[in-house]
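Structure first, sequence second, as always.
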């Protein structure tokens, strides 16, 4: 087993995500302040902003002598596991901004269990799934994953 101090150095968000969240919270923030907030060097933040701009996640706009950063609303995650999922949902969750009302939810609304009809005329009871999941504000549904194939031809059970 590894030592405890080595196992506590990881975080859920990458530096790119932290910088994008900081810019989403304050589009007029100076990169020097982003660097201080994220615990990065100013040069690292500049490189990250260049990466994010080149890949279409944000746009740098001159505002007098300063820069303003506009987050691209339709940008999606790059990893195949989150293919098609918009970054805006994560940003809404982390910044407290309102989520896109047209974005699909992770699960049905579990608070309204009275079976009344929604605006679209569907019964709430029909929408409820047998699940313990709680919907996250601003989260969008992940696409269905392809089933895992059994790589062991001899019938041995694969590790999943």
């Amino acid at each position: 087993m590894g030592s405890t101090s080595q196992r506590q150095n990881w975080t859920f968000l990458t530096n790119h995500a932290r910088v994008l969240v900081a810019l989403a919270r304050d589009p007029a923030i100076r990169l020097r302040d982003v660097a201080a907030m994220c615990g990065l060097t100013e040069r690292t933040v500049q490189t990250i902003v260049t990466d994010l701009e080149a890949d279409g996640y944000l746009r740098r706009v001159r505002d007098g002598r300063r820069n303003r950063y506009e987050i691209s609303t339709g940008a999606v995650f790059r990893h195949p596991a989150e293919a098609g999922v918009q970054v805006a949902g994560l940003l809404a969750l982390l910044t407290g901004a309102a989520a896109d009302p047209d974005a699909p939810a992770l699960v049905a609304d579990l608070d309204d269990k009275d079976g009344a009809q929604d605006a679209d005329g569907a019964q709430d009871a029909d929408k409820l799934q047998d699940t313990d999941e709680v919907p996250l504000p601003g989260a969008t549904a992940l696409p269905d994953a392809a089933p895992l194939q059994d790589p062991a031809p001899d019938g041995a059970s694969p590790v999943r």
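Margin note: Residues 83-142 form one domain.
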